[in-house]
Amino acid sequence: MTKINTHIGRRAFIRNTSLASGGLVLGFSFLNSCKPEQAKEMSGTEMPNEWFEMNSYLKIGDNGMVTVYTPNPEFGQNIRTSMPMLVAEELDVDWKNVVVEQAPYHAEKYGFQLTGGSTGIKARWIPLRMAGATAKQMLMAAAAKTWQVPAEEITTKGGVLQHAASEKSAGYGEMASVAATLDVPVEVQLKEVKDFKLIGRSHKNVDAKKIITGEPMFGMDYQKDGMLIAMIVHPPAFGMTLKSVDDEAVKAMPGIKDVITIKSFKEGFKKHGFDTNAFPELVAIVGNSTWEVMQAKKKLNAEWKPITATTEIVNGFFGKETRNTPAGLESTQGHKAQMEALASIPGNIVRKDGNPEAAFKKAAKILERSYSAPFLAHNSMEPINAFAHVEGNKVKIAAPIQIPSFIIPTLESSLGIPKENIEMELPRMGGGFGRKGYAHFVVEAALISQKVNAPIKLVYSREDDMTTGIYRPTYHATYRAAFDENNNLTALHIKAGGIPESPLFANRFPAGAIDNYLAEEWSIDSNITVGAFRAPRSNFMAGAEQAFLDEVAETMNKDAIQFRLDLLKRAKENPVGEDNQYDAQRYAGVLELVQEKSAWKQKDESKHRGVAAYFCHNSYAAHVLDLKMENGKPVVEKVVCAIDCGVVVNPDAATNMAEGAITDGVGNAFFGELTFKDGVPQKNNFHQYQMIRMKEAPKEIDVHFVQNEIDPTGMGEPPFPPVFGAVANALYKATGQRHYSQPFITKKEVVG
Amino acid sequence: MAKFNLKINGQTQEVDVDPTTPMLWVLRDHVKLVGTKYGCGIAQCGACTVHLGNNAVRSCQLPVSAVGEQEITTIEGLSENGNHPVQQAWLEIDVPQCGYCQAGQIMSASALLKRTPNPSDEEIESAMNGNICRCGTYTRIKKAIKTAVNAENV
Ligand code: FES
Ligand code: FES
């Protein structure tokens, strides 16, 4: 068994007194009132009379019921089930006796409460199991003390402590009061993978019942007595800011309480990399109801003026970053011309192996292809919103956000309220996809509440959500391959860039598999704001790379999977260069699994199949996608998917997530696109922005996981990027045409 | 402002609102039934789907003044305790990811099965095409609808 010293997590195990007394009282009042029922339903027993706090992640009731405080915000990846499973596994408690509660934001108790980057389970794998294991050890110590027997002789099973020799046994509930008074152990044992009882077995979504009965749970559902609704009037274009506002007519409209202007940042505030915000000066309309405020919003007269160019230093994830925001009104047409210009001149060399220049000079044949993809809007189904209530120098917040800690310094500065006085609940997010990592809307809500001196819920309309930025950037990549007279691949050259960032990962496959390799990048500044979007940068590079490798394999007359496996064999046995950021064996593993599960080798000419594989967020994914054309429209008949993300905590939930990532990938590859004219986004709602719907969704998805005992890695993002490549390669098979620029299908252009 | 007596989930509710207010906002802001969701406000996403009589309608496009005597059923009133066959099938297949679209999906699916107890794949796709799921749970939604059909047929 793995013995783990808990000292690294000691601070995470401080007692959670505020939660023991029922948590934040603010909130989903009717949700709170439902808890005993839900608890009863889950456990079949009454609520306990008393709870005993074992550590900040769990408390045990005198009847053996366990409450797990799940630390990270939920946005659909089902961590509210899988994270408590980690605790329950090591605690050795029956799942039916576990009740899940969302922890509020509390850095000291819960560490980095990040939902993003496919880091949730990976980061919590040890700490949450330790929370369960330390509590179990304390219960065992309590039993030993009570029964006067050695603790080592005590065993646990399903929430029951036993001492075989003396034939004594007791439920956790009976020992919880004593256990809670004991010291937190310094060392605990964690189970081995083979001993897991919960982990690795599918458990249903703990929130499913609430979701299908429409219980309030999302940020958008937040209600509080006396709460007003606020909406914001944003500038009409990127590159514009507020000049003046004439609010008289609007103030007189029914239900309207106030019209105010806010500034999101204090002068001189040192921004975080996630303080992205194209529109820091805004007009807010506050009123009694959403509909009334929406009507007022249409009537508001505001004047706008052009922004001036700025350069800022922000604290990014990897240290200080310079951010240039040029002035001007940008258009997609201009972006395309700018990108093509930079793509045609040398970029910054990021990696070079061997002598690529000489290899290209000597080549018998060169294949060169360019790929591009547009800006994308995240379009979470739940539009952006935030509840805030400022009272004096305190603020209570409840908002659907992915990274609560990142917005704390901004709130402190903009509100002038110390961080100890900022309370934040983390309601379920109706999707996030990266967008809700940029929590400017929380600051906006809090500033509005502060000014109008009332609890408010800020609601973005769909149009506000879609047109105010923080998009997936637009990208471009040119790939070149050199072949000798025997059609062997001798060199590979990538030049990738984008607005405003480069998507390049120079040290990922196929780096390490090719003797002569050159990777260059470039970028172009913009005032259109961008941010993380499900598998940032990978979501473009995977498609470009995997489509290009498909053409390389075809040029070499090789089977598409075998060609990739050959490259990976080279990377494993005799890698080129030092810093290859992938495990060639695990990479090959997903390709082999998808090859087997899709029966790839049984060449079936009636099927138009595309394959693609990619590594990102520490996990490996490969897809085989079958597509046919029907009345000029592509139909995705089946996607077979293989994933290696280490131990799969909750297999059916992980499968659901992979199915979603695949559907999302197909949708964005086919239709995803946001264009601009004079700074104005050309789509503002779903009548213009085509989203994948049931008719276009894959008819069948078949997900497989590589079985191993490696600590879990990312799951939400890795299956997404390779879909773009699999779609491109299957479309080629179905139509005879290669597809280089996303979106592949638009309303105007019918392919095939 | 005008007063309306609305029949919602078998109960009569009086609201005093602007007659142009869509039922979506009457439900969410005034009746405090927030299971019905706002997604687009322009009849494109289906998140706001409720039943008007036996039909699935987009409540964001239904002014309160147009409701009259007709019965409105929302997700909260679809069944006593989440035991409608469609809800049960949703649990069995464990459909939701973020869950935000699912009330609308369930209301569309349950209206479909009322009309067409044994729908073909094409009928399912047509009836559900107005409901966007950004998380991409379409394959599970389809499976759950078929599960509900089978449960009804045994
Ligand atoms: S909110 Fe009514 S259809 Fe989208
Ligand atoms: S489950 Fe998230 S939008 Fe459907």
Poorly predicted parts of chain B: none
Annotated CATH architecture of the largest domain in chain B: Roll
CATH superfamily of the largest domain in chain B: Beta-grasp domain
- End-to-end distance of chain B: 50 Å
Percent in helix of chain B: 25-40%
| Succession of helices and strands of chain B | EEHEEEHHHH
The SS-based structural class of chain B is alpha+beta
Q: If you consult CATH, what is the topology of the largest domain in chain A?
A: Aldehyde Oxidoreductase, domain 4
CATH superfamily of the largest domain in chain A: Aldehyde oxidase/xanthine dehydrogenase, molybdopterin binding domain
Number of structurally distinct domains of chain A: 3
Please count the beta strands of chain B (DSSP E, at least 2 residues each): 5
Give the secondary structure arrangement, pairings included:
The complex is a heterodimer of chains A (752) and B (154).
Chain A (H helix, E strand, L loop, with lengths): L1 E4 L11 H4 L8 H15 L7 E5 L2 E4 L4 E5 L8 H13 L6 E5 L4 H4 L9 H28 L6 E4 L2 E4 L4 E4 H8 L7 E4 L17 H6 L14 E6 L6 E7 L1 H4 L4 E8 L17 E7 L2 H10 L1 E6 L3 E7 L2 E7 L6 H12 L4 E6 L2 H7 L2 E9 L11 E7 L2 E5 L5 H12 L6 E4 L14 H13 L3 E4 L2 H6 L6 E10 L5 E11 L16 E8 L14 H18 L4 H14 L10 H14 L11 E8 L2 E12 L2 E12 L6 H20 L5 E2 L2 E2 L19 E5 L15 H15 L17
Parallel strand pairs in A: 4-5, 10-22, 20-21, 24-25, 28-31
Antiparallel strand pairs in A: 1-9, 2-3, 3-4, 6-7, 7-8, 10-13, 11-14, 12-13, 15-16, 17-25, 18-23, 19-20, 19-22, 23-24, 26-27, 27-28, 29-30
Helix pairs in contact in A: 3-5, 5-6, 12-13, 15-19, 16-17, 18-19
Chain B lengths: L1 E7 L2 E7 L5 H8 L18 E4 L2 E4 L12 E3 L11 H9 L8 H14 L5 H8 L9 H16 L1
Helix pairs in contact in B: 2-5
The complex binds FE2/S2 (inorganic) cluster (2 copies).
One FE2/S2 (inorganic) cluster sits at the interface of chains B and A.
